[in-house]
Amino acid sequence: MVIWASGFVVAKYAAPYAEPLSFLILRYAGVVVLMLVLALVARAPWPGWRQAGHIAVAGVGIQAGYLGGVWAAVAAGMPAGVTALVVNLQPVLTAVFAALLGERLGRLQVVGLLLGFAGVTLVVSSKLTTSGLTPLTLGLTTMALLAITAGTLYQKRFCPEFDLRTGQVVQFAASLLVTLPFTLAFEHFRFDWTPQLIGALAWSVLVLTGGGISLLFLMLRRGAASQVTSYFYLVPGITALMAWAMFGETLGPVAIAGMVVAVLGVAFATRAGARARSARL
Which of 109, 121, 143, 222 would be a feasible disulfide site paired with 69, CB 3.0-4.6 Å? Predict the structure, then answer.
């Protein structure tokens, strides 16, 4: 989650030097090249056409839909605190849909999910504002929430296991193809090639994807979808700590209390999920 949380810090670094979708196009292309080289060197197995289709669909939701929606919303003026609050409904939404699809949730797990969201609310409460809230920004943020929720559930159901190198080539190539028309329509591919932008791009490709996304996929392979996504409740708190350390942003007692509540929520949700899986074995 530390790696995942650093994505918001990277976005703050990159924002003055590149348009959001243009930056994501470079990120997707970089991941495709990196993973393709790793796959070819290791002679990694490639998925069949049917499995590749499932992997691509999941990737469009988890990558293009989520990242594109969040970055475009923030660029259009959506407050970061409100964005974090909306997208961190994901564990609750994932749990609801997972239950409808047959994944069993215990009472303690439900309590953990609700506690986690309460903690997130406390962490971002000092940054909540109605400035920048428009139908466009709310629509983009909601799209991001629905996209990553649907993508996570789709991957867990239809393609939970695949080689991470060849699978990510498929996912990010699909995300690039989906994002490119919107980039051509609304942006100009303008970049200010500063050390900050180069560093942000390198971190996005090598660490956020090579580390963060790969770990998420491994967790989805081994755990229930609702249990895995509950870890996302930790992201706003970790991001707040990074912003405090790197940018001098304030970190008040309410935010600190929210981090504690979020950690308790994740602990309840993950322990309850693990016990439920053990009982079924």
Answer: 143
C-alpha 263/C-alpha 155 separation (Å) is 26
Coil/strand/helix, residue 47: coil
Residue 204 has pLDDT above 70, yes or no: yes
How big is the CA angle at 82 (ends 76 and 85), to the nearest 5 degrees? 135
Does the pLDDT of residue 189 top 70, yes or no?
A: yes
Of 197, 156, 135, 201, the C-alpha closest to 61 is 156
Predicted confidence (pLDDT) at residue 208 exceeds the cutoff of 70: yes
| Cα 118 to Cα 70, 238, 266, 276, distances in angstroms | 21, 16, 11, 24
Which is more confidently placed, 107 or 188? 188
pTM of the model as a whole: 0.76
Q: Where are the alpha helices (DSSP H) in 106-163?
A: 107-124, 135-158
Provide the pLDDT for residue 92: 73
d(CA 255, CA 259): 6
- Tell me how far apart the alpha carbons of residues 134 and 104 are, in angstroms, rounded to a whole number: 37
How would you classify residue 133: left for phi > 0, otherwise alpha for psi between -120 and 50, otherwise beta?
beta
What Rg do the C-alpha atoms of the chain give, in angstroms? 18
Please identify which residue in the block is written with the tokens 């080539």. 169
Name every residue whose Cβ is closer than 8 Å to that of residue 88 and which is 6 or more positions away in sequence: 117, 120, 232, 233, 235, 236
- Coil, strand or helix: which one is 264? helix
Convert the pLDDT of each residue in 158-172 to its tens digit. 988 888 889 999 999
Q: At a CB cut-off of 8 Å and minimum separation 6, what does 179 contact?
A: 21, 24, 25, 28, 64, 68
